[in-house]
């Protein structure tokens, strides 16, 4: 297991975690519960870690894509309809914002 990204806050770490997992890379977030004491702790405590060392280089590229917004541009034309509630969603979303159901496999 190797550290991949130091997040500014837990929300950023979990967005990256979700993006990695949606692309088949297993990862975890560590240190997210320590960010409440950030005034007393080092600023680099909330990190995303890649579980399988062989996925690290791919994970680095996915993080670069994430911050450049490439997922939105790659999948923006792939609109989908939630099978649970019928909500129409844009292609970059992996779950329905209306009911929380996961997007079916592409």
Describe the structure.
By secondary structure, the protein is of the alpha+beta class. It has 2 domains: 2-68, Alpha-Beta Plaits; 77-106. It has helices at residues 10-22, 56-68, 70-75; strands at residues 2-6, 27-30, 47-50, 80-81, 88-89. It is globular. The two termini are 29 Å apart.
Major beta sheet, strand line-up: 1-3-2
Q: Mind describing the biggest β-sheet?
A: 3 strands, antiparallel
- Domains (count): 2
Q: Give the SSE string.
A: EHEEHHEE
> N- to C-terminal separation?
29 Å
The gyration radius over C-alpha positions equals 15 Å
* Class by alpha and beta content: alpha+beta
Indicate the topology.
Layout: E1 2-6, H1 10-22, E2 27-30, E3 47-50, H2 56-68, H3 70-75, E4 80-81, E5 88-89
Antiparallel strand pairs: 1-3, 2-3, 4-5
Give a brief description.
This protein has helices spanning 10-22, 56-68, 70-75, and strands at residues 2-6, 27-30, 47-50, 80-81, 88-89. It is of the alpha+beta class and 106 residues long.
List keywords for this structure.
3 helices, globular, Alpha-Beta Plaits, 5 strands, three-stranded antiparallel beta sheet, two-stranded antiparallel ribbon, 30% helix, 2 domains, alpha+beta, 106 residues
């Amino acid at each position: 297991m190797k550290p991949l990204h130091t997040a500014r806050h837990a929300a950023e770490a979990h967005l990256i975690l979700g993006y990695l997992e949606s692309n088949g890379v297993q990862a975890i977030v560590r240190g997210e519960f320590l960010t409440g004491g950030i005034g007393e702790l080092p600023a680099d405590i909330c990190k995303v870690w890649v579980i399988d060392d062989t996925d690290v280089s791919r994970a680095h590229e996915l993080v670069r894509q994430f911050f450049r917004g490439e997922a939105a541009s790659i999948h923006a034309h792939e609109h989908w309809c939630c099978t649970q509630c019928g909500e129409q969603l844009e292609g970059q979303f992996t779950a329905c914002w209306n009911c929380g159901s996961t997007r079916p496999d592409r």
